[in-house]
Amino acid sequence: MVKGQGVHTAFVDCVKLLKERDDLEVIVNGEGWGDIMHAHTYGPYYFWKGRRYRGRRVFTAHVIPDSIKGSLPVCPFLKLFVRWYLRRVYSYADVCIAISPAVGRAIRKLGANTRVVEIHNPIDVEKFTASPKLRAAGRAQLGLREDAFVVLGVGQLEGRKGVEDFLDIAEACPDLTFVWVGGRPFGVLTEGIARINKRIKASEERVKFAGLFGLEEMPAVYNAADLFLFPSYQENCPLAPLEAAAAGLPVIYRDIPEYAYLYKHPYIKAKDVGEFIALTKRMATEPAFREQGRSISRELLTQFDKEHIRKQLLALYREMLAGKE
């Protein structure tokens, strides 16, 4: 899998979650064969490995056709190919797990021949919990002053993630410290790479681009910040803002329709760069508003309890095996 993106994190978290108890055996990729195949990615290995699991294939859909907009240069041929290929991927599975309502609608809209169930990505709250020790380690690792108010962004350096808006917000808040963590898994194929690189170079004095970090390093990275911005234009069930919330950060989302269907609890949102700027300044100058943001983050996390999601997965596996028997 391509590291440095949410799908890889979700795969690692899912394996860890399933291994936490001794009520089932988990076999990963080439380690052998099991009763159920549960895949998170959709390359040739997915089709090859699934040949012996007819009637017992589960696929978690993290990507939909709209996900390529702003990630890769989109041409008519690529758009048609992506729709054709993803329809095959979904249809190859006996059950598709939609991580959000928007993903479920996209699978059905493509006309995929599969059953769709909705199960969210789990969040390991204990892993990211707020910690003075992690805060100190994260600030040292990122080279940040202890007295700085740090605004964090996490995601691939591409148009879809709103990195250019993040730069605009930083320009409007010169007294704050802005840090972006993430890279380019698709390399030179990334949409708008030349345009974004030019903006990054012009903003080097105001924004620190820290690059990629390993999963084990991210708790310290989140703890190093005071506020998390998530200006992405298209998401399904994003992990980064929930990980930031678990670290005790207030989170400001872009106001997009997907979140209105996904989240059961209130969240802080901004319609445009102007609203992002206004909310960021309030967070930096009003402690009471910042504490309100942290409270909203805590409530938002309750929807993604890992134990509840584990029970949903096991119930699905057992149901599929019972049907085959």
Features:
325 residues, Rossmann fold, 10 strands, globular
Give a summary of the structure in a few sentences.
The chain has 325 residues and is of the alpha/beta class. It contains 14 helices and ten strands.
What's the rounded overall pLDDT mean? 92
**Total beta strand runs:** 10
**Alpha-carbon distance between the two ends:** 33 Å
Write down the domain tally: 2
Helix content: 40-55%
Largest sheet: 6 strands, parallel
Number of helices: 14
The CATH architecture of the largest domain can be given as: 3-Layer(aba) Sandwich
Rg over alpha carbons: 20 Å
Strand order of the largest sheet: 7-6-5-8-9-10
Strand content bin: 5-15%
- Give the assembly state of these chains: single chain
Give the helices and strands as they follow along the chain.
Answer: HEHEHEHEHHEHEHEHEHEHEHHH
CATH first level of the largest domain: which class?
Alpha Beta
Q: Could you characterize what this model shows?
A:
The chain folds into two domains: 6-122 and 305-324, 3-Layer(aba) Sandwich (Rossmann fold), CATH 3.40.50; 125-304, Glycogen Phosphorylase B (Rossmann fold, 3-Layer(aba) Sandwich). It is built from 14 helices and ten strands. It has helices at 6-18, 44-49, 76-92, 101-109, 125-128, 132-142, 163-172, 193-202, 218-223, 240-246, 257-262, 273-285, 287-301, 306-324, and strands at residues 37-39, 57-61, 95-98, 115-118, 150-154, 177-181, 207-211, 227-230, 251-254, 268-270. It has a six-stranded parallel β-sheet, with helices on both faces. It has a four-stranded parallel β-sheet with strand order 1-2-3-4, with helices on one face. Helix 7 (163-172) crosses helix 12 and helix 12 packs across helix 13. The radius of gyration is 20 Å and the shape is globular. It starts with 5 loop residues before the first helix and ends with a helix. The model has no long low-confidence stretch (mean pLDDT 92).
